[in-house]
Amino acid sequence: MIVKKLRAEDFRLCEDAECVFEPGVNVICGINAQGKTTLLEAAWLLTGQRSFRARSDKEMVRFGAESARLTATVEDGGRDHECELILGAGRRVSVNGVKRAPLPLRAILFSPTDLELVRGGAAERRRLMDQAISQLRPAYAKALAEASRLYEHKTRILRDGDPAMMDVLEDFSLRYAAACSRLIYYRHAWCRRLSGTAPAIHGAIGGETLELNYKTVTGVDPEGKKPSEIYPALVEHWKAHREAEIASCSCLSGAHKDDIELTLDGLPARTYASQGQARTAALALKLAERDISAADTGSPPVMLLDDVLSELDSRRQDFVLNSIAGGQVLITCCEDGGISSRTGGKVLTVENGKVY
Description:
The chain is α/β, with parallel strands linked by helices. It is 42% helix and 23% strand.
């Protein structure tokens, strides 16, 4: 899978920027605030996911413009897909002229904020699971959307405290538990694969022993179970916490409590990891995600690497650059720094939203 061509019109500071990428490594260079990360953001949006920098699509429209337009040619399995994404008052998508078709790109993104995968709260690690599994399992994306909708409805009922609405609380709780049972099933299976891949990658980069374990609500053990077998345990957990939910006006049972527990040499990574250790662990998770995606689909996803090599010594930089070989890579840096010569990559220079 590769992005052959990408054009961004009225997207952030890019009035009209066009890139032609090579199948291998593409090094995007330029001083700060010129549009390097903007190009990665544009490519990431072709996966159908939300921006990793903006809270809404409107924020990505260039000042003074009514909408932004992204067009791209994405090759998958020897076939080209012509993609168009319009951002503004609403998001409009077309693929090969078909409106509302799913965008075809599979990509793995690493940005400096991904250190929060290690040092941040559980929401960051749930986001990792949601983004990765949604690209591989459409059924997961559907269950995630349903669970999010039911969670919002249930939370609103609990916060409003309207006695008349308490009659429907049980129905929403049971439906939410059913949706969560599917999320937990997929998350547990994916994390098992991640735990079998990421520690070896991390050991080769950093040396410390990385371990990770998927955690869900107490009393729910998804090991070897289908969603229909996980559901009863979730219902029991909800029943045990029902009065506490009403008293606290918040939802206390469900997949929104999930986490991935990370340890380095047996110590909680969130508490004890240094800046360099956190970056190395986050990189290991992303490289493992790439390997899982490639194994599932038969081709590696596109790697989008934003400022990935900073704070890494030369040995770790070499490992990362060697590990990303075998698929298309878009990597940003302030200066080439020998990346193109070390990888045989194409160099693109970005200045004031223009690509040269």
